[in-house]
């Protein structure tokens, strides 16, 4: 896993103990899952808008926000980026059509 992902995960875990008035991430945790999910939805929409505009700098900026808030969700759910990377590794070399057909409902 990337060093930056490890560093972010460490900080995100630490923020669980922090004062919500002093930390943006702690305030997200304090407000709960619905607030975190709303942020992910907002960031996903902003990423789509940036991509439609074709502004590469904005696409990178908005994707970073989307990834960051996704990492907040993972930490809130006691999951890690490594869990997601393992799933991507499992899918590697597997046809996307086959993988989708094999998903359990």
Task: Considering the chains and any ligands shown, give keywords for the structure.
mainly alpha; 77% helix; 6 helices; single chain; 105 residues; Helix Hairpins
Outline the structure in words.
This protein is mainly α and 105 residues long. It has a single domain, classed as Helix Hairpins. The protein is 77% helix and 0% strand. It has helices at 3-15, 24-31, 33-53, 56-76, 81-91, 96-102. It is globular, with a radius of gyration of 16 Å. The mean pLDDT is 93. One of its GO terms (molecular function) is phosphoribosyl-ATP diphosphatase activity. Pfam families: PRA-PH. One of its GO terms (biological process) is L-histidine biosynthetic process. Its main location: cytoplasm. This is Phosphoribosyl-ATP pyrophosphatase.
């Amino acid at each position: 896993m990337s060093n930056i992902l490890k560093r972010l995960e460490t900080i995100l875990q630490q923020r669980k103990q922090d004062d919500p008035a002093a930390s943006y991430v702690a305030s997200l945790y304090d407000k709960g899952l619905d607030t975190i999910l709303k942020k992910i939805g907002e960031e996903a929409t902003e990423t789509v808008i940036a991509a439609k505009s074709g502004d590469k700098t904005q696409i990178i900026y908005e994707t970073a926000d989307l990834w960051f808030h996704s990492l907040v969700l993972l930490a809130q759910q006691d999951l890690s980026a490594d869990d997601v990377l393992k799933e991507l590794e499992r899918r590697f070399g597997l046809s996307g059509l086959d993988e989708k057909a094999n998903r359990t409902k």
